[in-house]
Amino acid sequence: MFRQERKYYARAFLYALAMAGILLLPFVIIDHGYFVYYGDYNAQQIPFYKTCIEAVQSGNLGWNWKTDLGVNFVGSYSFYTLGSPFFWFAALFPVAISQYLMAPLLALKIALSSFFAFVFIRRFVTKPQNALIGGLLYAFSGYSMYNIFFNHFHEAIVFFPLLLIGLEEAVVNKRRGALAVAVAINAFVNYFFFIGECIFLVIYFVARLIGDRRFRFGVRDFFCLAFEA
Hints:
Elements: H1 2-30, H2 40-58, E1 63-64, E2 71-72, H3 73-82, H4 85-90, H5 102-121, H6 128-139, H7 142-146, H8 153-171, H9 178-189, H10 191-211, H11 219-228
């Protein structure tokens, strides 16, 4: 199926990337390369990236004197930046250009959100076009767009569909390991959102069990599922 429909997988990513670019580019041009928003985005998200990149590149991973009166670096920033693969990508570049990376990274997050949502939704619809629309709706949902000023929220939005895909793979397709990897990724990316994601996953599990005859498993499968989780 992937070979026949790979153009739709590519479109799920590229359409969202292009739409995000169209959305963000005018503001980047107006602000001479920066993307500034308001509130916490300007006061926290951009400074946090700069502070954390500087700390990582200098090897100062213990006590950070540049935050408040001094803080535990890992304890303070694991919620905001340190679990994000997008942050670690930004850390490959000089601190001086970190603020210029905020808009491209946001566009990339939106594109990946659309892609992973497409992969999940495709399981349940007949036409790939419908899954494509669903992926775009997920990536550009009100929650996603409203929370731009909380830049780190998008990490959870990007990787959450992997939990649903992992559960479907484990129960429906009897494939081991996918759920464990999805759990590990989401727990690492943001431990706080992970709690809510787990609650949702349990509700989703019960709903699927009640509503779909294909969603069945034996005792051994259940314990394997519990072990992965």
